[in-house]
Amino acid sequence: MIKRKIIAVLLLIASVANAQDLKKEDVKKEVIRLLDSINKAKLPDTKSGVSGEEHWYDRISLRGYAQIRYNGLFSTNDKVSCDQCDKSWGTTSTDPQAKANNGLFIRRARLVFSGQVHPNVFFYFQPDFASSPSTGIQNFVQIRDLYFDLSFDKKKEYRLRVGQSKIPYGFENMQSSSQRLTLDRADGINSSIANERDLGMFFYWAPAEIRKRFEMLVKDGYKGSGDFGVFALGVYNGQIANKIDGNRDLNVVARVTYPFVIGDQIIEPGIQAYTGKWAFTGEISSGVTVNDPQYIKDQRVGATFVLYPKPFGIQTEYNIGTGPRYNTVTKTVDVTDLNGGYVLLNYKWDLKKQLLYPFAKFQYYDGGKKYEKDARSYVVRDYEFGVEWQPLKAFELTAEYVIADRSFVDSALPVNRQQGNLLRLQAQFNF
Length: 431
Fold this sequence. Notes:
- By secondary structure, the chain is mostly beta strands.
- It has one domain (62-430): Porin (Beta Barrel), CATH 2.40.160.10.
- The chain is 13% helix and 48% strand.
- Helix 1 packs antiparallel against helix 2 (24-40).
- Residues 1-19 form the signal peptide.
């Protein structure tokens, strides 16, 4: 069809030169009309290889980010560490002579493939190329997210998410690591779900207007958590992402949050809770006793309050609950109460096309971490002071000074309180 139109145009042009009785103005109008129709037909672009015909891959977008860290500056005690947070911080070895892991470290290297492959089906796939297991091997590929959103209406206000994704518990857990100011999430909230993800099915609801507001709070640099609905309800394995479920009990989670506009400010209060059973699958050392290791009670409820930085911001969360924790006296894993949270103060400073975010954070946690060795017992009191500088969208630099006081004990280290300070640096590249 397009070839025939091109031939017609050429014939008309030729006729102008040969036919004396043909009105040139009429020929000109016809040529313009045909050229316009050819343009609308989207002729193949030989340079880019893109044709007018739509393909499935035209609906898929690709983006990503990478983080490179250095934790070796001005450390006063290399035994201060956080295995859950960053394996290059301090040393996690039980050997008292072990040296710190404070070299350059690729913390995250992620690609995100996503797209609306059908008017009612959205998919999201995020592998991480810098995963770090406890074996010390670095930078192997692991699935972080792989899910599908099935919407039930044209505005996509009602969605069912199926697959491996973030569990809707806590604002900071939902917040992407590419958006978060502090280098690590707080122990008090993040101890609920390691890597924030699991395999499950979740119902999300949010009005279209609020979904746009969630998007704006991320896009415009206000450090939002992203769109995880105003209301969320779901079930999941309860056994951490990329791990086979250890029992037949599904955990249940629910969350309600809403970003209110009050004058020039936006505040977002929220509440969340989950309940389920935890199953130990190799975390317990020889000689440590656990009663019914397949069905340990694991329950929490938490509250969130966020004042978005316009320009001054506050972000705070606290949760209480029940979960497994190592007992150094009896050498058993008991079900005990836990509690913890954090307060983050931040400021958004617009410097023409650059952004500067000074911040300060205090966090506290008193409880166990079920996915670590012997449900390791923790008492954490940390202060963090730092600044994030974004000279351009593709690059961010964060400097964070940590004053740490962390007790973390298990059967190998029944007495282990470590205090120390250090400066941590991170370069982030967005693409």
